[in-house]
Fold these 3 entries.
Entry 1:
Amino acid sequence: MQADRLILLGTKGGPAVRPGGPMPTASLLWLGGRPIVVDCGLGVTRAAVNAGLDLRQLSLIFITHLHSDHVLELGGLIHTAWTTGLTQRLRVFGPEGTRSLWTGFMTSLAFDCDIRVRDEGRIPLPDLVEITEYGPGRIFDDGDLQVSALQVEHPPVDACFALRFDRGTCVVFSADTRFFPPLAEFARGADVLVHEALLPAGVDALVARSNGGDKLRKHITASHSTAAEAGRIASMADVGRLVLHHLVPADDPGFGPLDWQAAVRQSWQGALDIGHDGMVIALPQG
């Protein structure tokens, strides 16, 4: 059985991709030998395969919200798993709108999917994929694994959810959120809190590189948590380890791990990881 672990497949906040830089948000969680993908930013398929995932094993995907840096490769991951030989049911849990996203993808790939069923004898892909749109509360429970959702504040997106995975070991993903104290209670006692993080000093340069303006700057600062605020949530929740994820900025050479550490140590003195693509974090055995 695979040891319980968390693999950060993509750690960059935002959809832009730059030469040599990290990829947008995606994670692979192994719990009790079961692979679980959390968010599907661009590059998730290659990163998951490089991390050792046999795509034919894929059975659970969870989406926190529908910003493109979290869902752009959802359809691509599923389709590639199918062409790799997936024959088991694949369950996708996402907020309202996820079913429309999947339907649109299937419409765009109708020619390819239809001809592979006729020409290669594959099971029709819609027969394998089950989409569940969720809200706050318990969203999955098979007796072994429980998954719960908390609606967080990521304006102007209403349907954005932190996710808590409990299987003896507990891992919580903040999703994208501004500083949101109820998240601390939701994450109470978690072994690992995976929290988004922003360095305010890097915002102006990021906006300039993205050809943005005041509206983009206001969105970033109003909708995301600083590294120090992520540390505050970790301290309030008394978690075992804080992992900074969805870093903004993630690909600015003017900022490195020491800058992130200095920011988060204002509020958190416990175990800390500054996320990077491919990082593997061992989890306690539940």
Entry 2:
Amino acid sequence: MTRIAIIGSGPSGFYAAQEFFKKEPDGYIDMFERLPTPFGLLRGGVAPDHQQMKTLSKLYDRIASHPNFRFFGHVHVGKDVSIDTIRRHYHAVILAVGAETDRRLGIPGDDCVGSHTATEFVGWYNGHPDYQSRVFNLNASVAVVIGQGNVAVDVVRILAKPVDDLAKTDITDTAISALRQSRITDIYMIGRRGPAQAAFTELELTELGKLAGVTVVVHDDLVLSDADSMEMAASSKVRKNITQLEMFKASSSIKTPQKTIHLMFYSSPTRIHTDANGHITGIQCTKTALMGEAGSQKAILTSETYDIPCGIVFRSIGYRGVPLDGVPFNEATHTIPHKNGHVCDQNGQLFGNVFVTGWIKRGPSGVIGTNRSDSIETVTTCLAALPTLPDPHPLDTPSLLANHRYVSYADWQKLDAYEQSEGIKKGKVRDKVTSAKEAFAVLDNHSHS
């Protein structure tokens, strides 16, 4: 029987499991996850006020209900068990570990107090165990978000949205109480390039315009160059974005908004200003100009600078994968090199029985569904390679983890039910378990009751 290990339980891991069972219904899958709970960015990344998207977890539950599927949560591959050990005991290993860190700005003041990554903030309000000890000072009146992708828009929206609307979601209680005390009135979202190149989608943009008590101000003229116009003609996404931005420009219907979202284009942060204690006092931006052909325009710094006084900065300029011990890694792209999903070294030599899917394979691009076709390619490659790979040493996984407490899928279903019932008590969708310690306390309590 074919036995596969999948490392990571986000969307790309589950789509790989789905495709594997479709082609090998009698095969076996063990899925390993570093956190005590499954679903990766679906749980820890999707905004709490986007509950519709989270219903995808029902599909993952169905995949996990296959009799030959097992889940090992709270198992850190590389720490609790080595990747080499796993390689020895399975026909193949599929890495679906995502892109765990953020790209840096690389400017003076990057690391000062009050400069954060969007990942930290999103993880914090979404109950991700890694970020629960973080503190965000929301006492300042001005926040700056650098980047214009959908994650940046999420951060802006969470800072701007009426807290009572958020309180019904699965956002953490810690985040709600901090947002209730927030004094932020102005939020700047800054992009290096122009409106035609912005990565957000019209859907996300429109949502900003519908927030109660919030007005959206576009600070730049929406005059498009010839190259921009060509980009606009080629992309309905760009056309929809520009139309929405023009609507914002035309209407400032709320004369005295409680909060204002400022959209700034053609601006690159070049320095974060701090006081004597190292706390943020503002950010310096340099105006940019676009150079190059349509579709590949680059932002070039000009000599014009301006300052925005602010007390907190979030950078949302992309994610980066991190290397796994003993697995080839491309330091330039922060991904694992591969041929159609089969891991290879820098010289193109195939790397035994290790395969890769999702963001760690292709870089942080696309939406959740993009991982599906990606995983289909990887599983197809993996199954074709199996006859050439050595047979694994038989050993049952629980005995590998004899001295380590893990979370099974049945355990997760108990946690899931607990989170939802606790949520009902508080009038919200769910009240998340935010640490392994809490998860095991709930499970121990459950087994005694």
Entry 3:
Amino acid sequence: MWFNSLDYLLFFLVVYTIYWSVPSFLKKYILLFASFFFYAYWNLAFFFHFLGTTIFSYAIVSLLRKEKKKSILLIGVGANLLNLIFFKYSQSFINGILSIPGNEDLFFTSLPKIILPLAISFYTFQIIAFIVDTYRTDTDGIGFIDFILFIFFFPQLIAGPIMRHSDFFHQLGKVELKLADTQEALLRIISGVFKKVLIADQMARIINPIWNDPTSSSGSEIFLAIIGFSVQVYSDFSGYTDIARGSALLLGYRIPENFRSPYFSLSFSELWSRWHITLSTWLRDYLFIPLGGSRVTNTRLYFNTLVVMSLGGLWHGDTYTFFLWGLIHGTFLILERRWGVINTRNKLFNSCMGWVLVTIGWLIGALMFRSGNWETFSAMMSSMTNPGKVKIYWQTFIELSLLCYAIQFLELKNFFQEKIKFNQTALILILSVVMYFAIVRIKIQQDQFIYFQF
């Protein structure tokens, strides 16, 4: 069920009511049952697959607690990676074989299409982190039920944030219903719905026709579609995260921040400390550092950076464009490390030029990311020289783009917590009413969150 659906609203209201009505020792079981239902609601067969994967992983954890052997670690990590690779990449491999002339009659054609299980990329990384943490440190005291709840916890299950055990388990059994937390949670949910419904989905209505048929669009429209996608993907993904964090906080759990005004970044390294933060730190701690981190020669450091960012791209999808998206961002990080950021005596000039370079680099990556396949990417590139007028809704496009940056500016300045001093409950009511009338006045196109496909 989508976070921006009536199904989720009803589901959460029922869970919330029951959760805060039962004694403390029962709360985690209510959450566990709700999380099981949440995933099974999408697909019962994949729910059992997910549950089996989690049980297997806890068995690996139990073995590591008895004897910290690298062979056990490799089996646990390897099995989870193979599970991810099979579901995420094997269908593309099969399609590639079948696309070769003469292979149309291979037995592959009789096989059912491999479906990507919901959230497999996110829960795989979360499980791997727990297994590695068990090998590195100590996760004793975290029992089977608690581990399953940690992996299945429904507010962050579908698209993160990717949690570590240190983000979650210290809160178990200590949840409280606090007015301040409730107010913060509702503001986060309002923010998330605003970003998703009033910015991301509305921008999608404008730019999707261009992405779906780039050859019929002018070069100016292609350029605007790339900018529009950067607005859409931020508003969509950070909107999901806001709703996830708000939902978790309403249940007494504070889960990690995943976005911190990334489009105000002045360097590429700063960008990756602000965008999809939990994935960036996961790649750093479980891939970049084991490869040697920054305590190596420059040549090895550059190689490690390219490997990590390229694999980060492939984590998103199985096509050349996702790989190139990661590769080019790795290249930007290397160039920045090699030559440094812009540094003159004029700080304003430094900031402006840094922002411009990061924005251009991000838009180049956005073209590759949204294309999703080589055919679309090639069509977008070839259409950039097409003459013609811009036929999209200019005013709406500009308004949505400005809203995207405005809401990031408010978050950058922590506006609602530090600047707004009057009654928070009144603020929530006012924002809810304003958003309601804004929603009823526009045409709503309910789309799933972009990162649900990963």
